[in-house]
């Protein structure tokens, strides 16, 4: 039975309406309060945030790359400075793909770019990370730069920059000293997320001193504010915060000497180090041939990178610190000091007949006829192998190795480079640990003439010469950041040092092997020791038919040529170490004695040294830049032009390049093959009158 509907009264209707009205009013009130609260939050708490967003729509903020600190020599002359540069880049992320052909065509018209340049830009855009600037053109005239700026609203993704770029006035002559700068890689940006790294025109140190001194050289960026329309068109420039330039770094290098030594090495693959023996300051630090750091900083082409990598003279290698060589006869003065320190008389003689029998082996001197009876001085003068074979055989090389270490061989020096190789000063404990073998008499004979397991870099050879000259434990330094540290006297009898210096004087001035190094400067004399180091095994068949001369061999099989010296003998001021890879003493005016003589002459009589170089350089094909241009042109003529239209934006640092690793591995293999045989001592040092 259904219940009849409840009658609706006026009071009930009024109550229901009032309740619903209150609910709606409450909801409306809550919404109003929420809106009011939100408006208050936006107006008060978030005021600064939205003010900045609003400002960013009206104002563009652009970072200004800081001017990089200069690198100067000991006299304040620029080794690396900054030049004013107008450049244009493209930021891939800001350039729509559909707009790329039009933008490139317009840039080609505005800047007069050749077709191959446009091809290079297209390839670089494809390969670049989205944020990486792709170089369009640099070193623009103000008129061309202004032409791009005027049309900027039509050029999305194009970033014209007026700033500074790195410049190396001496180019190749300082490449391995300074290194170079370049655009940051994608990995470097991802690691730090530093916006400065993706600012067009900004570059960081990639190798050498530029990389090691990056925190001091970089400086602090500035910022430029400009007012723009909604379409990005410039309205007016607002205030600019200037950048703070990096700090100037002063080196111990003499820039004039550095460039002269690089030029005097000529067409050789080699290095030269000059040290001030009063302080340990490195005056010249040269490795040649080398790359042009200006090209690397601007963005080296794929073709140029390949050309440098293929060069058998390995221009990417810093030979001063990365090259390890058997020091050859340059260690004989050092060996003489070890003999004297262990009680051997300087007047004790050994008769050289040209060969020495030890057990079943015969070990030869470079002079097949022999030198006759020699004391220590004459043995160093004539670079007699038999004298040092016999004396070191009697003494044992374990008594020589400590003197070698005292004079700097095998020593690690605190220099701002991460690519040093330190060589080896062997002894019986070292061989037992490394090869699990006992030291043998042939090992001592090899080491006595600077072969076998003995290895050194050119800097160490220069340090050895400087310590003999000064009698103090000089430590080389490159950064002139205060007075030079005081070096302690060597634990060597001064009379013994005087005996060795006299012998090295005789090498040059009394008929020894270094006669071509004699100075032609009144009142000044040079003391030196020549050296030759074998780099190949000589077969028994070749010995039977006659050992081939260096001139008859391919470049890579020729002996290394070495030279250490100091001057003036009367009051030593400078010492030098010179190494020519596979020099082989084949060309007189490109050999070590003449190079050493002229480098020291530059320090004592600059005009005479420059006059000599002016006569010699044309015979080598001109100066460094001229020869490099000729080599590039010859290489390009053999390679398809298509390989040139690409930039190596993320090229490996030269000192870490695969070509350097390959050259190092080959040298290590050669040294190991020779060290594990008695052949170097059996053949002799190949020393000849220089």
From TrEMBL:
GO terms for cellular component: plasma membrane. Residues 270-584 form the Penicillin-binding protein transpeptidase domain. It is a single-pass membrane protein. Residues 671-682 have a biased composition (Low complexity). Residues 64-238 form the Penicillin-binding protein dimerisation domain. Its EC number is 3.4.16.4. This is Penicillin-binding protein 2. The gene is mrdA.
């Amino acid at each position: 039975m259904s219940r009849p509907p409840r009658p609706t009264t006026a009071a009930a209707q009024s109550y229901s309406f009032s309740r619903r009205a209150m609910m709606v009013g409450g909801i409306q009130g809550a919404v109003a309060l929420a809106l009011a609260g939100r408006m208050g939050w936006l107006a008060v708490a978030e005021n600064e945030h939205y003010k900045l967003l609003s400002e960013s729509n009206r104002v563009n903020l652009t970072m200004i790359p800081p001017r990089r600190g200069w690198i100067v020599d000991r006299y304040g002359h620029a080794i690396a400075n900054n030049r004013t540069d107008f450049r244009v880049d493209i930021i891939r992320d800001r350039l729509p793909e559909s707009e790329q052909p039009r933008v490139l065509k317009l840039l080609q018209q505005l800047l007069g770019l050749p077709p191959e340049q446009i091809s290079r830009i297209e390839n670089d855009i494809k390969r670049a990370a989205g944020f990486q600037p792709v170089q369009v053109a640099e070193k623009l005239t103000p008129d061309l730069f202004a032409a791009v700026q005027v049309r900027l609203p039509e050029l999305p993704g194009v970033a014209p920059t007026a700033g500074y770029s790195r410049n190396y006035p001496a180019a190749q002559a300082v490449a391995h000293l300074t290194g170079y700068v370049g655009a940051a890689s994608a990995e470097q940006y991802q690691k730090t997320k530093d916006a400065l790294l993706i600012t067009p025109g900004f570059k960081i140190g990639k190798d050498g001193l530029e990389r090691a001194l990056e925190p001091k050289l970089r400086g602090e960026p500035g910022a430029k504010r400009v007012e723009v329309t909604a379409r990005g068109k410039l309205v007016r420039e607002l205030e600019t915060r200037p950048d703070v330039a990096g700090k100037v770094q002063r080196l111990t290098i003499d820039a004039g000497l550095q460039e002269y030594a690089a030029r005097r090495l000529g067409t050789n693959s080699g290095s030269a180090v000059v040290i001030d023996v009063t302080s340990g300051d490195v005056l010249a630090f040269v490795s040649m041939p080398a790359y042009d750091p200006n090209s690397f900083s601007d963005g080296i082409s794929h073709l140029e990178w390949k050309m440098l990598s293929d060069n058998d003279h390995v221009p990417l290698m810093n030979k001063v610190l990365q090259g390890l060589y058997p020091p050859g006869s340059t260690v004989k003065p050092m060996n003489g000091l070890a003999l004297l320190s262990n009680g051997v008389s300087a007047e004790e003689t050994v008769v050289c007949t040209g060969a020495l029998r030890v057990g079943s082996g015969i070990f030869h001197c470079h002079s097949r006829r022999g030198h006759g009876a020699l004391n220590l001085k004459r043995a160093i003068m004539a670079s007699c192998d038999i004298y040092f074979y016999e004396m070191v055989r009697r003494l044992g090389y374990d008594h020589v190795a400590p003197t070698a270490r005292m004079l700097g061989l095998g020593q690690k020096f605190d220099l701002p480079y991460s690519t040093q190789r330190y060589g080896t000063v062997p002894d019986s404990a070292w061989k037992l640990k490394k090869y699990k073998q006992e030291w043998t008499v042939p090992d001592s004979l090899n080491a006595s003439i600077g072969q076998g397991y003995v290895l050194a870099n050119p800097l160490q050879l220069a340090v050895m010469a400087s310590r003999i000259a000064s009698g103090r434990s000089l430590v080389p330094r490159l950064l002139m950041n205060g007075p030079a540290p005081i070096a302690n006297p060597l634990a060597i009898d001064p009379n013994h040092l005087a005996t060795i210096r006299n012998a090295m004087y005789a090498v040059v001035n009394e008929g020894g092997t270094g006669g071509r190094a004699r100075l032609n400067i009144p009142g000044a004399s040079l003391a030196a020791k020549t050296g030759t180091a074998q780099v190949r095994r000589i077969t028994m068949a070749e010995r039977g038919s006659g050992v081939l001369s260096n001139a008859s061999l391919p470049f890579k099989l020729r002996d290394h040529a070495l030279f250490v010296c100091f001057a003036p003998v009367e009051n030593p001021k400078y010492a030098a170490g010179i190494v020519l890879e596979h020099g082989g003493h084949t060309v007189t005016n490109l050999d070590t004695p003449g190079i050493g003589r002229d480098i020291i002459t530059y320090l004592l009589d600059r005009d005479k040294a420059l006059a000599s170089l002016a006569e010699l350089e044309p015979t080598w094909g001109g100066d460094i830049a001229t020869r490099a241009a000729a080599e590039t042109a010859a290489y390009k003529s053999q390679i398809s032009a298509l390989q040139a239209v690409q930039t190596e934006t993320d090229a490996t640092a030269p000192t870490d390049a695969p070509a350097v690793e390959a050259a190092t591995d080959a040298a290590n293999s050669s040294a190991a093959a020779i060290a594990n045989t008695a052949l170097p001592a059996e053949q002799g040092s190949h020393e000849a009158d220089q």
